[in-house]
Target: Lipoprotein
Amino acid sequence: MKRWSPLAATVASAALFLSACGGSGGGGGGGFVLPPPATTPPPAASEAPKFKLAITKTEDVAGTFGSVGVYEKITGTFTGEVDPRDPHNAIIQDLSLAPRNANGKVEYSSDFVLFKPKDMGKANGVLRYDAPNRGNIVNLDPYFASRGYVFLTAAWQGDVPAAAGKLTLQVPVARNADGSTITGTYRAELLPTAATSDSLPLPGGPYNAAMQAYATASLDNTQPGYVLTRRINEADARQLIPASD
Model:
């Protein structure tokens, strides 16, 4: 099985909030600068991607930030879809093999956190997007907040397990055209963090422990491609550990 991680979701989220956070109800425009019109004709209305935004919580951020004042933290999820036939989306792994909805698109759902001035009339017109590392929320930066920036963090990695304080991305599982499981080479580095460690989960270590592991296609480690090696330093040559050990 393969879980694709659509970086296109980050682009969609930024576009979504650029249109949604352009000003306050009191008439204070945020003044976001939109890109120039595309040189290619826009898709027909029936073909345009559909997005749905759900806000689950809105709260004031503690303190004030210069002349901008109070900030709001908005938490929620947005659901979108990408076209597997669009060549711009070909970079998304196995997108063409993912299940599609009635519109022929592949759907995803991403958690997001948005920080914005409570009075959008004091926003400076710039939305800053931060891609979270392993689902960790990027907190409000006081330096930029005092200058009226809007901050958006949205999940983009489909293998981050759900946990408190984590942003997750829900994506479908791709399969071969005949419905069989997609298989391929999977590599993971196990990094013992204590001298007494004699076993580690797969995945494990400080760099890849917070992820959903792929199920092994076979438990027979004598098959070609099933290899276990070790090394002391990253630049060292890998030493093969026999399957019989």
Notes: Residues 1-38 have pLDDT under 50 and may be disordered. The longest strand covers residues 71-82.
